Amino acid sequence: MAEASNGLIGWDYALENTPDLIISDVMMPELDGHQLCERLKTDERTSHIPVVLLTARAGEEAKLEGLETGADDYITKPFSPVELKARVQNLIELRQKLREKYSKNFSLQPVDVTITSTDQRFLQRALDILEIHRSDTDFNSDTYAHEIGMSRSQLYRKLKALTDQSTGDFIRSYRLKYARQLIEKDFGNITQVAYECGYSSPSHFAENFKKQFGVSPSEFAKTVL
After folding, report:
1. Residue range 41-74, pLDDT digits in tens
2. Within 13 Å of residue 117, how many CA atoms lie on the same side as its CB?
3. N or C, which end of the chain has less CB nearby within 10 Å?
4. Closest by alpha carbon to 205, among 194, 214, 190?
5. DSSP alpha helices (H): ranges in 78-201?
6. What does the alpha-carbon distance between residue 53 and residue 24 come to, in Å, rounded to a whole number?
7. Are strands 73-76 and 22-25 parallel, antiparallel or unpaired?
8. In this structure, is residue 31 part of a structural domain?
9. Hey, is 215 helix, strand or coil?
10. Which residues pair with 55 in a beta bridge?
11. Per-residue pLDDT band at 111 (split at 50, 70, 90)
């Protein structure tokens, strides 16, 4: 757990470390809680991070003001540590359920899950980049991070938070599901499919395909052709 003495320091820390959750007071110097939350929720690097705002202002208007900036929860002071802990736990569990839902339903397009519009745009852009480089055998995590405009660690943490997959796993999953589509459409032989999906080694492709789907590419082809 880390602390920041003002909102600007908190923002810099969030960019550098991508925490699992942020609890912020509304009243802070440099950058108040509402401003910090708005920055976090509109930046692709941090938009997935749950934010809890704390305030001494009671009333529906104050709560709505916090939620309108994208806050995931809003707690009025004074509050009990038990209440705060329960709300934080609920947000973490909700985020885990969203990751599991996305991971199970992941296709070649972003699925309809409850994530912010900023996260949805990020996922679409992430898939668009994979589409461009799907046959590029030199495309890797470093190239991916450069193209998407993040550091390698930021991209890893972002994908892990949204999909529960590392960058390498995300690339591999995309390529293998694209390969399955090609086989279903009778694109060509297994070697041609492997090359089209960015694999320089057909045997490595076959190994990954079987690990992903439980059958070899040739066995899968027999069931669909």
Report:
1. 999 999 999 999 998 866 566 566 656 778 898 8
2. 2
3. N
4. 194
5. 81-105, 117-132, 141-148, 152-163, 167-184, 190-196
6. 5
7. unpaired
8. yes
9. coil
10. 76
11. very low
Cβ atoms of residues 139 and 171 within 8 Å:
yes
Is residue 185 classed as helix, strand or coil in its secondary structure? Answer: coil
End-to-end CA distance of the chain: 54
Q: What is the pTM of this model?
A: 0.80
What would the two tokens of residue 184 be? 């279903």
Joined together, the tokens standing for residue 157 give: 């943490």
What CATH number did the domain enclosing 188 receive? Answer: 1.10.10.60
Distance CA(111)–CA(101), nearest Å, equals 9
Q: Note whether 173 and 97 are same-domain residues.
A: no
User: Domain span at residue 39?
Assistant: 7-101
Distance CA 119, CA 3 (A): 25
Write the pLDDT tens digit of every residue in 91-109. 988 888 777 766 665 555 4
